[in-house]
């Protein structure tokens, strides 16, 4: 974490060593400590006071998967596609590195102080990162749920609805119309249930998402500063890449969920004839209105939107920050 926040450098011609206080760097470290404490307290609160709500939330996700698999003709029982497997493997690789990067290269380096530091660092890092892993799995699951319902409507239900069209002026039987209406109604209910599950998830985990992203961004900034000052080795480069990978995987999961949530508008289920009942048409109109009103977006506390653009904005700010430091060091050396 960094307790001593000053640098010792040579003054140049005289060769004297001078210690200089780094107040701005101390501010970054204090913010990181504060974020560590907030993540730890929030994790304890969730575990001891809101454990039942978390269990109900997990069961809600599982019930959505069960309802999808219960649809007639839905044979896709896997958790996503090959791309989802690739994302999960990348997440596992990041977790393995996060668990092992503090292990010393030589057994002789182990002592009581090093073990205590390693345990504290592992606890703090895992406590701050476990929330990010929860978000990744949750948003990836939401994207998979949307994708499976879309796939069922596109590949099976639309084909069944096309077969219900009148052939040579003969309308389809009432039994077939009723069965198709029930399947379409079940799909619409699943679409309506997903935003309710998402709202329940955000009500519990929206605040720590904002805090964890701040922690990750501050970590990248402080680690990059050490790399520029040649104060670390290759391990720091890997740590920066690992943090960027965590944020990238989160934004990709959100992008998948948001993209799949928009597909229902392109399927045009309202154009298929089911019945002339006014209640049914009103239900479809209200469903389409809710799609526009409850668009899937991830905006922690309304401060910013989690998307791929977030990484680009942060990287642009980080490059500006590093450029300023380089110019400042060059001007100070010329004085």
Automatic annotation (TrEMBL):
Kindly state which keywords UniProt assigns to this record, in alphabetical order. Cell membrane, Membrane, Receptor, Transducer, Transmembrane, Transmembrane helix
Record carries keyword Magnesium: no
- State any GO BP term from the record: sensory perception of taste
Q: Which InterPro entries match?
A: 7TM_chemorcpt
**Residues annotated as transmembrane:** 29-50, 132-149, 204-228, 234-257, 306-326
One annotated Gene Ontology cellular component of this protein: plasma membrane
**Membrane topology classification:** Multi-pass membrane protein
Localisation per UniProt entry: Cell membrane
**What function does this protein fulfil?**
Gustatory receptor which mediates acceptance or avoidance behavior, depending on its substrates.
Its family remark reads: Belongs to the insect chemoreceptor superfamily. Gustatory receptor (GR) family.
Protein's name in the database:
Gustatory receptor
Native source organism of the sequence: Drosophila mojavensis
Q: What is the lineage of its organism?
A: Eukaryota, Metazoa, Ecdysozoa, Arthropoda, Hexapoda
- Gene, per the UniProt record: Dmoj\GI22860
